[in-house]
Amino acid sequence: MSTLKPRARLAAVGVAFALAAATPVAAYAALDDEPASATSASAASAVSRGKPYVETRLFFGTQRPDGGPPVTDKQFMAFVDEEVTPSFPSGLTVQDGRGQWRDQNGTIERERSYELILLYPVSEARAQDPQIERIRDAYEQRYAQESVARADDTTRVDF
């Protein structure tokens, strides 16, 4: 630093002093902040409400591989009333869909479909599983379907 002129030396010392003085403020400010993991954990707990449930979604196609007429809305809702509601009287959701899948012969099939959504407490999962499998089997047999797709996921539900 001895090669600097007195004015430049004074400016350099001033800048160094200003940086050193600002550093503790930033460090202390960081101590007041929660760590990123704590912030995300507290944000997650703030939005976690409800109880642990299983969400099962079943996907029902309507085209019949044997060439018979497609399953109608009336037929599907009668199936829900007879086969699903007795096992899930607390509620369910049916949505219309358009599906695509590859059949056992390798042909891509496109068809109108239904998505059935069932919610039940995690504690009832073992008891509900055989009932859900009976629903799938009943639809496959009644409407000559190769399969009924099933997707299960855990979620939190608040009614």
Radius of gyration, CA atoms, in whole angstroms: 31 Å
> What can be said about the biggest beta sheet?
4 strands, antiparallel
Q: Look at the structure and give the mean pLDDT.
A: 80
- Give me the secondary-structure category: alpha+beta
Key attributes of the depicted protein:
alpha+beta; 43% helix; 4 helices; 4 strands; 159 residues
Describe this structure in words.
The chain is elongated and about 45 Å long. With 159 residues, the protein is α+β, with helices and mostly antiparallel strands. The chain starts with 5 loop residues before the first helix and ends with a strand. It contains four helices and four strands, in the order ααβαββαβ.
Structure at a glance:
The protein has 159 residues and is α+β, with helices and mostly antiparallel strands. Helix content is 43%, strand content 28%.
List the helices and strands and how they pair.
Layout: H1 6-32, H2 36-47, E1 51-61, H3 73-84, E2 93-102, E3 108-121, H4 125-142, E4 149-157
Antiparallel strand pairs: 1-3, 1-4, 2-3
